[in-house]
Amino acid sequence: MEKSFRYDKDTAVVQTKQGAVHGYEYDGVTVFKGIPYAKAKRFHAPEPADPWEGVREATGYGYVCPLLDPERPDSDLGTPHRVGVQSENCQNLNVWTPACDGGKRPVMVWLHGGGFSAGSSMEMVAYEGHSASKYGQIVFVSINHRLNVLGFCDLSEFGEEYRDSGNAGIADMVAALQWVHDNIASFGGDPDNVTIFGQSGGGMKVTALLQTPAADGLFHKGLIMSGVQGGAIFDCVGSGRPMGEMLLKEAGVSTVKELEEIPYEQLTRAFKWMRSSLRPQKVNSGETPCRNGYYAGDPLEVPFRPETAHIPLLIGSTFSEFNAIGVMGYDRKNITPEEARKAVEEKLGKELADKAIPLFQEAYPQRPLIDLLGMDYMFRQYTLDYVNRRVAAGSAPIWDYMFNLDGPMYGGQLPPHCADIPFVFHTTDLVPSTQEQGVTQRLERQIFETVMAFVRTGNPNNPEIPQWDPAGEDGLHTLVVDKQTQVRDNFDGQLVETMSGALLDGMVQGILSQMARKPTA
């Protein structure tokens, strides 16, 4: 089928508060890329973008935040990637809309993954907002913001002007949401119906914004995909002075003002040395949100803010996340139950295996026993804790899901981290490794319509799925997305608790060790 395209001086011109922007029309969607929403000096709070005269071209992705390490080419089968042009002037966003009219369509704002250190709004090919806008009839926004040492370096003890430097990246997100509130009606969106969502680090950003008073009133629903992680491990707590002093010493400067001006490469070298020294000591070493007056802290460690109790949430994870390595070397299709039990006992120990095996078989009766070694229990445990705490706080409804669909690679791949992204974005056609005849399109429709129902109304129920109740005093009602999607009641909590209780501390310590590696250059 042929697709329409239009670009001329009179097409897709929209007036924002800073000035007019010029996009293009393609295949039923009007597209704008690289619109600046703010500006900021290094370590300082964002300010509104400078106004401009005339019409600003908005047809190419803007700068992405500089990364700590060079990007490495890798396989593009699972998560096809793109590399952006890096600059500290990275506060920009992209908009896809069915029409720039007064349509008051629901708005989705995408917060990219990569923890708080890496990634960008254009990094994954699946991040394209075109299909979601076209088929969901929504306005789709994706943003770039400051990361790593630029976004989360707590220098508050070095002067009032650096008071919120430890949350500069969060402040950028708030500035982007403020831009959406002020301008999105001109792009056909409803500023009073905004859903923020993200996967992995992007999900963590959703939880962080829920704990950030400056974001109150700027969004109305949240979708958290594999994005609840570790409580205080992922908050910066305590004084940032040791971090600042070590940065100054390693960078060879004497003041933070000088630190503002040195080349980014010099700053990152100093930052990585500082991090490798301080993080093992559990001393504030930046790179994640800083618990202070601006950001209240991760609600796995502190209470939920009552100001966000009214916001409905959709939350979940994938079956395997990063743990599929556990089944490498085993023939999942042909291994006998006896061989699988022996393998599980060897890996987990007989005592834990005896507890976990019957729980796994009850939770996942269609999976071979060997898959127990590939099951995620870290993301899932934190997700269950988050849901239970939210319910106990008497907050708005929260719906829990599990993405349990094996992929077609290697004759059947456990669902890894990021596996659900193309289905949520309606972009499976851009990701070869999602394609399974008779399955992919049906599951994409099911998941996409569920997300769109939530975005429109705050309730994910729709004709494509079974009746799905939010978590409550009677426990969890989990939408298990698979070739035969079903709602399961309290189906995996005991299993996850058994596994995580025995193994989670070791996994977390492994992550911390990885983050604290001595830099090689």
Task: Note the topology.
Elements: E1 5-6, E2 13-15, E3 20-22, E4 24-26, E5 29-36, E6 38-39, E7 47-48, E8 55-57, E9 92-97, E10 105-111, H1 130-136, E11 139-143, H2 148-151, H3 168-183, E12 189-199, H4 201-210, E13 221-225, H5 241-251, H6 256-261, H7 264-278, E14 313-318, H8 337-348, H9 350-363, H10 378-392, E15 398-403, H11 421-425, H12 440-457, E16 477-481, E17 486-489, H13 493-515
Parallel strand pairs: 3-8, 10-11, 10-12, 12-13, 13-14, 14-15, 15-16
Antiparallel strand pairs: 1-4, 2-3, 4-5, 5-9, 6-7, 9-11, 16-17
Helix pairs in contact: 5-7, 8-9, 9-13, 10-13
Characterization of this structure:
The mean pLDDT is 93. It is globular and about 70 Å long. 30% of the residues lie in helices and 16% in strands. It is an alpha/beta fold. Strands 1-4-5-9-11-10-12-13-14-15-16-17 form a 12-stranded mixed β-sheet, with helices on both faces. A 3-stranded mixed β-sheet has the order 2-3-8, with no helix packed on it. The chain has 13 helices and 17 strands. A hairpin with a 4-residue loop joins strand 2 (13-15) and strand 3. The protein has helices at 130-136, 148-151, 168-183, 201-210, 241-251, 256-261, 264-278, 337-348, 350-363, 378-392, 421-425, 440-457, 493-515; strands at 5-6, 13-15, 20-22, 24-26, 29-36, 38-39, 47-48, 55-57, 92-97, 105-111, 139-143, 189-199, 221-225, 313-318, 398-403, 477-481, 486-489. The termini are far apart.
